[in-house]
Amino acid sequence: MDTDKEVIGYVIPVFRANHEVVRGLMESHDEDVTEEGINYVAMRNLFVREAREAMHVKVEKKTRTVHVRESAERLQLSKKMDEWSEFRKKMNPDSLTHPPEFIVKPRGQTVWEGKTLKLHCTVAGWPKPRIAWYKNNVLIDAKRHPEKYTAESNYNMHSLEIKNCDFFDTAQYCVSALNVKGEYSSVATVVVKRFQEGDEAGPLDPKPHGFCSEHGVTFETTIIDKFEVAFGSEGETLSLGCTVIIYPTVKKYQPEVVWYRDSVPLKPSKWVHTHWSGERATLTLIHLNKEDEGMYTMRVNTKSGFDTYSAYVFVRDADLEVEGVPVAPLDVRCHDANKDYVVVTWKQPAVEGSSAILGYYIDRCEVGTHHWAQCNESPVKYARFPVTGLVEGRSYVFRVRALNKAGVSRPSRVSEPVVAMDPSDRARLRAGPSAPWTGIIKFTEEDSTVGVVPGEPTDVVVTEATKSYVVLAWKPPGQRGHEGVMYYIEKCISGTDTWQRVNTGMPVKSPRFALFDLAEGKSYSFRVRCCNSAGVGEASVSTGEITVGDKLDLPSAPGNPVAIRNTDTSVVVSWGASKDVKHLVGYYIECSEVGTDAWVPCNNKPVKKTRFVCHGLTTGTNYVFRVKAVNAAGYSQSSPNSDAVVVQAAISLPGKPTGVTLLEAAKDYMVLAWTAPAKNGGADIRGYFVDYRTVKGDVVGKWHEMNHQALTTASYKAENLKENVFYQFQVRAMNMAGVSKASLASAVLECKEWTITVPGAPVGLHVLEVRDTSVVVLWESPAFNGRTAVNGYYLDIKEASAGEKGWKAVHEKVNKLKYMKVTGLKAGASYVFRVRAQNLAGVGKPSAVLGPILAQTRPGTKEIYVDVDDDGVISMIFECSEMSEGSEFIWSKNYKAMTDTSRLTIVTEGGKSRAIFNSPSMEDLGTFSCMVTNTDGISSSYTLTEEGLKRLLDISHDHKFPVIPFKNEMAMELLEKGRVRFWTQVEKCTSACQVEYVFNDVIVTQGKKYTMNFNQSTGIIEMFMDSLEVTDEGTFTFNLVDGKAKGTTSLVLIGDEFRELQKKSEFERAEWVRKQGPHFVEYLGFTVTEECNVLLKCKIGNVKPETEITWSKDSIEIAEDDEDSQKIERKDSELTFNIGKWIIKQEKQKEKEGKKRPAEDVPLPPRPKISKSDAGIYEVFLRDDRGKDKSTFSLTDAGYQAVMNELFRVIATSSSEIKVVSTEHGIILYSMVTYYNEELRVGWLHKDAKIAASERVKSGVTGEQLWLKINEPTEKDKGKYTMDIFDGKDGVKRVFDLSGKAWEEAFEEFQRLKAAAIAERNRARVVGGLPDVVAIQEGKSLNLTGNVWGEPAPEVCWIKNDRELVSDERYKLKFEHGKFASITIATVTTADSGKYALVVKNKYGTEAGEFTVSVYNPDDEENKEGKKG
Known about the structure:
mainly beta, 6-stranded antiparallel sheet, disordered N terminus
């Protein structure tokens, strides 16, 4: 039940943009609305621009009381407006609202160039129409071009003035009038004529192709530098461009350049940028997405016609963040937008990932925010989903993510924004504002009735039905009441009469609704009710039973694909269309290399045609293809695989031969030559056909064939001709695909005897081995030698872009060969060549020009390489990956066909050819080349020199007679017990490898003396001997045999080397014997610890508990009760003797007796870590029943000095960095060490000069501190200080820079401390004479004197109970000699009791000497004691 303050009605939607922006959003994203006329759009935009204002849209919530009050006010205002309108009609009946009407229309005109013309019109209408002028449907903005146009409007008379007319102003001019009742327009044609010299062409004269009647000019369009098929990845930026040449060039004239994708014009946006520089058209695609894939076309429109160029752009998926997940969906669009509902569609991606796609998630984001919300909880299979729950009036964008078992894909590109709004409101906004914008949108009906229950909806139908959801649509009721209406949807399960309300929580505003959570396979009926604040209306007619399930089936598999060769990187694939498919989205094509199971998508955006060119394939690779169809329901099954196809360029007809020239002429024959066509069509030229015709003056005869069999050379001797008759010739080339078109006819040639002495032009120019910096040019001898034989040739070269003066000779000396390798070329440059022949009479004319030849190495080009196999056979190998049908390897020597087949044996297998030298020798020196027929000039060469041949023969010999390689030559090492090991290691060997062990040419075998071992897996060969005897002097050898490979390694042991080795062996055996009993693992030595303790240490081994260990010094055994025995320690197998350990025998004895040391018994200072008294020879003995061992260390002379040096090193290393401290006397630099020994030398340097000791600067040691004191420092003491500590070798230096901030801080602290010390010495203080407590009998006299000190003499005062005393009759205060202060109280009373203080004060400080005075009465004391008694 409504209360007086209850909020009812609708919440007015919040718009965050002005009216024009909202209208633009809806126009750009509503696909179902027909495009408006260009005149209307331009007119509307012009008016909106003039009336544009910044808006702030209000949101109002109204209570029923406010709503009723405002309704009453509106009714009253409406009544007043109606009365005023009736009054206006009576007063001015001609001013009734009516659409625009042209009273006078503009008339067409013809003027001469340079003149000015005016177009006039008169327009009636109410409200007053607005006028806009157009030229060829393009709005004229006179304010922006005042130099060209002037537009005027006065009292319904309008004019457009065009100044300084030229023929570009020839056009159709349209004037458009618009008011709220409609739009009308009128057209006039303007022709601008130009003065011309000469006779004018008549109207019936034929016009050239593309002739423009408006300009009298025929424009020819040429597109060069064309963009090729392009590949990009998601997220990248890609640019396409072409150079456009327009001929003739007309001043100020520019063509129109339009870009298309899949035949749809592209408009500039944040994703698409276009640019036209006047010569080059460029299209830039920002942040590529798969939606950008397609056929791109550039169209150039001129007045004479148009020209186009197209190429495909492929967009690959970005790298996956998680392996196996699907790639992102594409082409997300929004349809059927309503107040709270929109349908989102998308296209499935080409790659599903490691498993099939399980469904899709749809996300939405409100425009202006960055928060994405997921619209569906469970994934949907269909590529179409109704999104509900939108807020009316707000704009949204959507994106989609795919899901499979591996995870979720990256999101798609976001959709275009869409506004959640009623379609009728969208149409009203699109029409533009008819009145000033108020900033408030009120969704109210025109019906003035209040409180009317709405009627029932009509035409309730199911528009979509899947197993995931069902979408209902209906028409609003005719009877709605004053308020808007909302809807309740009800469902009924088939077989029951119970209707359930679906949206019980909130009614919907849109006449669309999506129902989820329905049981698949069940049947339902649906109906709709309207509601408003007056109540709920009657239910609509039921839809009838609807079974929940997918209505859209998966497409059937496409037909068998057929793959056809196209280019060397592309294949054309065609297939049969899927049958009986509904709502086909397109097809995806996949390819796979033969022999693998990896399928790669050829397109990432589905195509609807049944033919597709797959680009980006690898040349020479075998591929198979398959196709799958896709619609909103999902993917079809893949088609069967196509037959395998090799990626190679398709064979086509060759190009035309060129340069037909005359080489020699006689009475009845002429010798002709020509240049082979630049393009052979993918197959070698098999021959040529020559045609001829006679020429008599201006009359030419018919063409006749001269040869019926194809010519194999590019020259021909035309015989049986007539003398002094003129002929013309043309040539056709032939390959396996057929015969080409005829070349251009030669010049008119006369058949007569030549008398030329120099040779003719060389023929048959062609190139091989084209590389980035070199090329080999070959030619044939001229057909006409001249008076003498040809004795050489000259090769000329020039860059293709250079003029005739650019020719230069490749070489200076004459070349007698008919080929030459040209080097030093620029990579990427094009060159042309020509050859001149020479005889004794001179140099003849140059040949026909060969080229242009691009200096560029073909991708994948391989060179001839030489191989020597395991049998020593030398061969040259050439490989080609672009073999086609009929391709052959042709080997030649010095670029001539090899006639002597006994030198080489050619073996070809697939794309590899091997030329084997039968018996390599000096006869084989030269350049060997190999070319592959039916390819685009694939060739290579190898020059065999004398040095190279020798090297190959050496390698061949090594392969024929192989030697087993050794990693290490034979070596010897001593083992435990004095055993000797001879060993070596080979790099590799087989299991059949055998070893022969030899000593002094006698084979030795395994036995008591020798032990052998050969590990074939590691290649290690070993021979062991227990000991070396005198008879073992000699040579030890290992002989190896592994198949036909052999190897030998030896070791010679004789003379002093053998005897030294024998001694070592005996020593090792003795050592082994020694170690059978207690022994020293490490003999007695010394070490100095970080604490500077000097230890004698050794390690023992193989000891038992009963093993006796004895220490001695200078041959005197150290007994257990000796003081030095306390220095001996044993930890596991390590024995140590701490030389510097301090042991007080008496103290130990007292501790044993349990006595404490007297307090006055001061301990002795600790002994040094080591001293001269510790010098001597120390020995350790080990003994038990198994044997004995001894170790000695001499701590005398050199030994003692070595220990001290090590001690000095540890001390020096332990020294800290120099620090600085200030005192009242000066500055101290110091460093701390772990320990100090008086023998340690420490030196100080100032500025690298030794510091001499003085009273002011001193150095010394205090404990472990090494210091340098600088008393009363001055500026001279600043600088670098170095402390040099002797470490047994060079010394350790510690450096401190006492300057800058360090000096300032230290010197400032010194001055502060010095001043503080002075103040402390001279401050005023009480030095004595005053007691702490004074007890005095009442009536007595009190006299106290205090001794004071201070410089200057202090001021003195006496204080009692914090009050200063003044000298008077009662208190006698004196201060004598500046040292003695006294106070005298003649007769004390109890009132004099209290706390007294003598306060002294001077400029350095103040001090108080405090004491207490207690005055007592004897009588009182006695009375107190009596009472106690």
